Amino acid sequence: MPRPPSVGWTDRFDRRRVALGLGVVVLAVAGLGLAAGVPSFAPRASVFADGEGALGTGGAVGDSVSYGVDPRRTDATSWTFGIPLCVHGSEPVILRSVDAAATVGSEFRFLGARLRRFTPTPTHEAMGSVAGFPPPTTVVPDVLSAVAGFVVGDHCPPLSGGRYTELLLGFGAAGPGGGGWRGVAVTYEQSGGDRTVTIPWTMAICGTD
User: Fold this and answer.
1) Strand partners, 18
2) Which letter does DSSP use for residue 133 in this model?
3) Is 101 exposed, middle or buried (0-12, 13-18, 19+ CB in 10 A)?
4) Peptide bond connecting 158 to the previous residue in cis, omega within 30 degrees of 0
5) 181/128 Cα distance (integer angstroms)
6) How many CA atoms lie within 13 A of 53 on its CB side?
7) In terms of Cα–Cα distance, which of 130, 97, 137 is closest to 203?
8) pTM of whole model > 0.85?
9) Contact between 6 and 125 (Cβ < 8 Å)
10) Could you list the pLDDT tens digit for every one of the 209 residues in the chain?
11) C-alpha to C-alpha distance for 23 and 21, rounded to whole angstroms
């Protein structure tokens, strides 16, 4: 499996190992193990945890990931973070919106969200994080799509079918205090109804005070 430039990567899609680069510091990572089976996603509720519903990252319920970027280690003022998206089952979903589940700090700016779908290779990799938003074409040469109306149909776990869908979130520094998102809420449509998955990934700009 390909290795992203900023985050450790193993054959189990495990982000426990860290590589410092582009001023990125991984603050804390809980094991991102793959769900062993296909979870039920009957519409018994409209809000799901990652690993429960039709849409997710491929991780098990309760898995979490935290990224932090240290502005003192780079000249960058904005960053892009990548999150894999895939579906459990055979039915694709249509994305509606992306928002913060919660925030931490206040001195940051959310710069937007894009998506890409591609086939990773050793020279064209999945991305953990990179300086700049939109991300530089040297790292992300793919066509970037808007969230609303984007169809996710790649099956979990990520790369199981060769193709890879990645949600790219951009954040900019807005003061010495830093801040970011504590969890990502992705709303999507399936079978005529709206659902929301809450992905427990934290992406933050570290304070410089």
Assistant:
1) 7
2) S
3) middle
4) no
5) 16
6) 27
7) 130
8) no
9) no
10) 343 444 333 333 333 333 333 344 444 333 333 333 444 444 445 999 999 999 999 988 889 999 999 999 989 999 999 999 999 988 999 999 999 999 999 999 999 999 999 999 888 888 889 999 999 999 999 999 999 999 999 999 887 768 999 999 999 999 999 999 999 999 999 988 999 999 999 999 999 87
11) 5
Q: What is the 3-state secondary structure (H, E, C) of 154-166?
A: CECCCCCCCCEEE
Tokens of 2: 């390909």
What's the Cα-to-Cα distance from 136 to each of 24, 132, 176, 192, 209, rounded to whole Å?
16, 7, 25, 36, 28
Structural tokens at position 197? 């998955």
The DSSP call for residue 143 is P
- Spell out the residues 6+ positions from residue 209 whose beta carbon is closer than 8 angstroms to its own: 176, 177
Closest among 37, 106, 21, 111 to 69, alpha carbons compared: 21
Nearest to 2 by CA among 102, 101, 119: 119
56's enclosing H/E stretch is strand 55-56
Q: CA–CA separation, 16 vs 12, rounded Å?
A: 11
Contact 52, 201 (CB under 8 A): no
